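Consortium newsletter contribution from the modelling node. Members have asked for a concrete example of what our holo predictions look like. Here is one, prepared for the PBG complex that several groups have been discussing at recent meetings.
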Amino acid sequence: MTRKNTDDAAGRSAAGTPGSFPAIRMRRNRQADWTRRMVAEHRLSADDLIWPLFVREGRNTREPVPSMPGVDRLSIDLAVEAARHGADLGIPAIALFPNTDPALRSDRAEEAFNKDNLVCRATRAIREAGLNIGIILDVALDPYTSHGHDGLLIAERIDNDATLEALVRQSLNQADAGASVLAPSDMMDGRIGEIRRALESSGHTDTILMSYAAKYASAFYGPFRDAVGSSSTLKGDKRTYQMDPANTDEAIREVALDIAEGADMVMVKPGMPYLDIVRRIASELSVPTFAYQVSGEYAMLMGAANNGWLDKDRVMIESLMAFKRAGAAGVLTYFAPEAATLLSKT
Ligand code: PBG
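And here is the predicted structure:
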C-alpha cells in the first residue's frame, strides 16, 4: 500500500499513525467559554449592523407596523433621536425609508424629485444633528408611484430607460439632501452607470453607491410594503425586474456589472434564504458584500419569539452571525439597536 505524504481528509498523519480519536478530540477546543472565544472564526459587533428606519409625517409620533412587532414608523424628530441612539450604540449607518402620503403618489413619481420630500427633510434633520453615522437612502420609485412599482410604467410594462432618468433625478435630489450612501434597489438595467455618471458630473464624487445588485423577487418583503404603504397599491408583482429565486450564476453577473458601472458595495436581498449567494459573491468577487435581513425574516423570528417558540435574543444573534460566516461585510437588520445593545454587554 502506498502512503500519501500529506494528511488525508480523515486526519491520518503522513507517518500513517491514526490522527483520529482519541488523539484528536474536537471537543477540547469547545470546553469553556475562554477556549471558544479563542478559536472563534467570526465575530459580530455593532460595526456589522445597519439599521433601517421608517419615517412618517408629524411630530413626536410613532406608529407601530403591525406585521413587524417592535418596529415603528417615526416622525422626523423621533428619527433624529433614533439616529442618535444608533450612533451612541456604535451602529455605523442607518437606512431611511419614507411612508409617503398616498395623495403625493403619482404615475410618474414626481414626489421623488421634490427637494422637500419626507426622506430629504429627514436626511437634512439627521445631518444637522452632526452625528457620527452614515445615512443610506434607497433609490427606487416605489414609495412615490401610485402603482407601487419601482419603475415607471407604460401601459402595463416597466419602461427601463425612462425609469433611469427618474432614478438619476431622485439620486441627485437625495445626494443634495445629504445622503452619504445611495442604495439603488430598483433592479433596472444600467442604473448604476447612469447614477454614477450623474454624481460625478454634479460634484458628488464622494457619494457611495451600495447597489442592491442581487435582489430577488421575494415574498419576504411583505411587511416592508405594509410599513411604507405600498402593499395595497402594488399592482402585479416585480418579477420582470427582481431576480428569479431559482438563479445563482445570474447574481454573479449582476454584481460584476454593477461593480464595472461604479458600485462601491453590493447587497444581497433577502438574507437568510440567500446565504449561498452572499458566500459566492464574497468569495468570487472580493467586493464589500452586504446582506439585508428583510422584513419577512424579522417578522418570522419575532412572530415565533412572541409566541414563546424561539428564544429571541439567541435567534437574533445566531441569524446575524450566519451572515458573517457567509462572508458578509455587514447586515441591514431591524434588530440592529437590540443586537448592538446585547453585543455591548457580552
Ligand atoms: C423598495 C425596497 C423594498 C425593500 C427595500 N427596498 C421592497 C420591494 O422591493 O418591494 C424590502 C426590505 C424589506 O423587506 O425589509 N424597492
